[in-house]
């Protein structure tokens, strides 16, 4: 079973948003909220769709909405992968 890494998630988000690296200042980007990183809801919806296809998981809207940071979204996807195994 392939686990999602935060680095891979950030690659997917950048591809979906069509943007370069987010500016996180001196903080780690995986701990900042998506809005603070400059990602809007459209980029996140595209990211969710891509994650569902690539990792064969079903991201429920309510659970997905609770994942406010890349670290939280990575943990959610990996939990779903573990449950499906």
UniProtKB/TrEMBL annotation:
Alphabetical keyword list: Phosphopantetheine, Phosphoprotein
Keyword Transmembrane helix: no
Keyword Transmembrane belongs to the record: no
SUPFAM superfamilies per record: ACP-like
Top-level division of the source organism's lineage: Bacteria
Annotated ranges, domain Carrier: 3-81
Endpoints of the signal sequence: none
InterPro entries: ACP-like_sf, PP-bd_ACP, Ppantetheine_attach_site
Protein name, per record: Carrier domain-containing protein
